[in-house]
Design goal:
Chain lengths: 148, 148
């Protein structure tokens, strides 16, 4: 990096969401959508051993968000603007998304997953194994714990 | 995205690790290093409300990893090669890292955090609030659960 890096899709999301309005949003949203992550065929060997993990981190690109960002943004269903980095807004300095999915199975380069919250055709930048979580007892969730 | 996006640093890690050999690695590694994430001053307003979160996702760039990648890679301390996407190897198609840190406090653009596992000077690409974790009971951790 000088101060920039160029990243490219290692694969794409295939799911039923074709418009952002279809994706559950807001603090009570639960993501149960199933679909597949289709990884480029030349990378298939890199998926070896992934089957043993129950959950994966998917790092992806907000390829259809409007360009640019506001430092304060009002999350869906909220009445108050919040600092961008305290939200999952798609309009960020770097349009990178992060989603935890449950891995249901693998067929070659296709990972069947649950918990998608992105559009069909979304470019995937990386996949990492989910190794450990922070327990609910340890978590403080900022404005999400305030009354609406 | 056509098929590429260019991302740039929104800030940098400041911590005591100047060489990768200093960073705990392997399946028993515990990351307790403290340090700061220094966000670019023009983005300070975007950190509003972040103080209420106990944990953050930090998405960052492996700016000093050797270029390129191998689809099978032997993790530190292991004897068997594993598929790249089932590991946290720094040599990936897109050199993007992901770390969960505990947020200890904020002074303006400086986030004091615990749990760093990257080098001093590492470029940060994004910060997101940690909203919920997968419990240990739900997790299967693949090769990490096999005997060494």
């Amino acid at each position: 990096m000088s101060n920039e890096i160029t990243v490219r899709a290692i694969g794409f999301i295939r799911c039923g969401y074709t418009e952002t309005s279809q994706i559950p949003k807001g603090r009570r949203a639960i993501h149960t959508a199933e679909g597949t992550i289709e990884i480029a065929s030349e990378l298939e060997e890199g998926l070896t051993d992934i089957d043993g993990f129950s959950h994966l981190f998917v790092i992806w690109a907000f390829d259809r968000a409007a360009e640019g960002y506001d430092l304060l943004t009002t999350p869906p269903g909220e009445s108050r603007a919040r600092g961008l980095f305290a939200t999952r807004s798609p309009r960020r300095p770097n349009p990178i998304g992060l989603t935890v999915v449950a891995l249901l199975g693998r067929d070659g380069t296709r990972l069947r997953v649950r918990g998608l919250d992105m559009l069909d055709g979304t470019p995937v930048l990386d996949i990492k194994p989910y190794l450990s979580g922070i327990s609910a007892e340890e978590l403080r969730r900022g404005w999400l714990e305030e009354k609406t």
